[in-house]
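Project standup — Tuesday

K.O.: blocked on the structure for the chain from last sprint. Re-posting the sequence here as requested.
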Amino acid sequence: VYMGPNVSVNSYPDPNQFLFSVIGDTSVAVPQVTLSPLEYLDANGNPLSANQVAAGQTVRVRLTASNTGSTAAVVAGLALDSDSDRANGVIYDSGSASPSEDLPLTLAAGQQQTLEWTWNVPAAGPLGQYYASVQLEDSHHVLGFADSGWQNAFVVTPAAKASATIALASSLPARSVYG
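H.V.: unblocked you, prediction finished:
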């Protein structure tokens, strides 16, 4: 039986009937995790204005994970993509960052935890709609405990152009005006 990132405890009609819930092995903890909607914030923690971020700026991705099952060690990962084609790779994967930016945590039974990643939008990266997905898995990335699914995240806009004021010295003689 293949159990990869597309197999989730929460995808079973009755999570209590999930294979690792019924085998009776107490060394395999099976949480039942739900995720809040993802939030997209600026570098100061404020919601993005019009859900937009400029290229070269920082975006924070935040959500809350709630566990109604067994206490378990999990790993939370974030993926961001600049198009809807996952087959061509993603622009950011927290687990592929060096060092890894996946979030290891222990979710106790009945506990909620806020998870947050900070990502610097590439200054020369693609503009337009970005997509996000968060997955909570076991530490071996075999069992999926929660998956937000791919969803619209934020829109990357062109970086603001720097402006400069240049003062020019006049070489003309000063004049007086009389009324």
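K.O.: great, moving the ticket to review. The radius of gyration is 24 Å. The longest strand covers residues 58-67.
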